[in-house]
Known about the structure:
Layout lengths: L8 H10 L7 H18 L2 H10 L13 H14 L2 H12 L5 E3 L8 E4 L5 E7 L2 E4 L21 H6 L1
Antiparallel strand pairs: 1-2, 2-3, 3-4
Helix pairs in contact: 1-2, 3-4
Amino acid sequence: MAQPVKLSDRLINTARNAAPSAHRSLAAQVEHWATLGMAVEGALTASQSARLKNAVCEPTPAPYVLSSSELSAALAQALSHALAPAAQSEFAAEIATSPQPRFGTDAAFPGCIIRYNADGSMTPGFWTDNKFAPLELTRDARPPPATGITRPSRTRKARARA
């Protein structure tokens, strides 16, 4: 359930400026940054987290451009820690247990995005207007049986024609 949250004008304005280049809404941009922050904070020690936060005293209008050598050093240290095998295993376990759907690709659906649902099923589709739109399966665009995707049953007429 969505909850209202008070955020600083500086953060809102920075997110508003960054969102269009990432094809996100203002809310999606803030949520994206929060998700990254949670992932990074979980992989850092308290001192690394404090050093990184101090290096980013004030967000810049172009948040994806490094602006200082101190920020570069803090990010390099944070990334080397996050890329350690133990941190990767922990993060992979967190993603695997997430109730949110994951997305990927499948050779059976070239050009499509596959949504991996929490129940283990897969749904092919496309991104349209910043939303996932499931692919309507037709006779020509059916997945192979091993994909776990349920197909609509044929009508009597379609079975008679086959």
